[in-house]
Amino acid sequence: MPGWYARSFDSVRGTSTVSQSLQGRTIAVFGVANKRSIAWAIAQRMQEAGAQLAITYQNERLKQEADELIATLPNAQAFQCDVSRDEEITRLFEALKERYGKLDGLVHSIAFASAEDLKAGFVDTSREGFRIALEISAYSLVALARAASPLMTGGGSIMTMTYYGAEKVVPKYNVMGVAKAALEACVRYLAYDLGTNNIRVNAISAGPIKTLAARGISGFGEMLKEQSERAPLRRNVDVNEVAATAVFLASDAGSGITGETIYVDCGYNIMGF
Ligand code: NAP
Q1: Domain span at residue 230?
Q2: pLDDT of 56-69, one tens digit each?
C-alpha cells in the first residue's frame, strides 16, 4: 500500500483527507498556444494548486508570445519542444532533469491534422495526412511518456486530451477521430507498461471548447450548439472544469485511476438519442 494512502485514509473511522494539492510537484505541460488553449487553463489551475511548471511551446516563431504568456504565471518556466522531433524531446528532458531533478506529472494537450483532411470526406484522407495526424496527435504521447518516465522516480501522473470522435462518427472530425482512437489505446498500453513504476496514464475526453485547434474543424459552431442542447446538463463544458479534472488526476486524489478515459462533457457521451 503506498505511503500516502496509509497516511490519508483512516479505515476505522472511514474518513479521508486525500489531498488535491500539487504542492511540491513539478509538472511539464505541452500544448499552450495561447490564452484559449486547454493547456493554459490546466497550467493556471495546477499552479494555483501549488505545482511548479515547465511549459513548452513548439518553435522559435512562437517563442516571444509563449514567453510573455508563461511569464505571467508564477513558478513557471518556458521551454521549446516540437514533439515531431526526437532530438528536441531528448534535449528538453535533459534540460528538465538538470533544472528540476525529477518530474511528478506531464500534460499532453497536443493535436494536429491538415486543414484539407478536416474538410473533405474521411475516405479522401491522404497517406501523408494520416501519418502526420497520427504521429503528432497520438505517437507523441508515447515518445513523451518514454522520455518522462525515468524522471518520475517517485511515481507520476501523465494525462492527455481526447474527444468523443474517437469512438463515434463526428462528421468532419475525420482523421482526427482515428488519431484520438489510437491515442486512447496508447493510454491503456502505457498505463500497463508504466504502472509498475507507479506512473498513471489517463485521458480526459473534453466536450467542445472554442480554441485555435477547434476553429480548424468545419461545423464546430454546430457541434457546440448540438452538445449544449442534448447534454444532460444542457450546456457546454467550461475549460476550467476540464482543468479541475486535470488537477485531480495529477493529485493524490486520483491515485487509484489509470488507463481511463474520463469524460468532462456535461454528460453528452451517455446519450443514445
Ligand atoms: P490549441 O490551443 O490549438 O492547442 C493545440 C496545441 O497543439 C497547440 O499548442 C499546438 O502548438 C500544439 N502542437 C501541434 N503540433 C505540435 C508539435 N509538432 N509540437 C508541439 N506542439 C504541437 O487547442 P486545444 O483545443 O487547447 O487543444 C488541446 C488538445 O485538446 C488537443 O489534443 C485537442 O484535440 C484536445 N481537445 C480539444 C477539444 C476542443 O473542443 N477544443 C475537445 C476535446 C479535446 P502550435 O499552436 O504552436 O502549433
Answers
A1: 22-267
A2: 999 888 889 889 99
Ligand 1, residues at Cβ distance < 6 Å: 31-33, 37-39, 58, 62, 82-84, 109-112, 136, 161-163, 206, 208-209, 211-214
Give residue 16's Cα distance to chain centre: 27
Give the C-alpha distances (Å, rounded to integers) separating 264 from 119, 177, 241, 261.
26, 17, 7, 10
CATH number, domain containing residue 239: 3.40.50.720
Residue 145: other Cβ atoms inside 10 A: 24
Task: Please check whether residue 2 lies inside any domain of the structure.
Answer: no
Query: Would you call 57 a catalytic residue per the annotation?
Result: no
Instruction: State the distance from the centre of ligand 1 to the C-alpha of 135, rounded, in angstroms.
Output: 13
In which region does residue 210 sit, left (phi positive, over 0), alpha (psi from -120 to 50) or beta (all else)? beta
For 220, other C-beta atoms within 10 Å of its C-beta total 19
Q: Tens digits of per-residue pLDDT, 150-162?
A: 999 999 999 999 9
Question: pTM here?
Answer: 0.94
Q: Which amino acid is at 3?
A: G
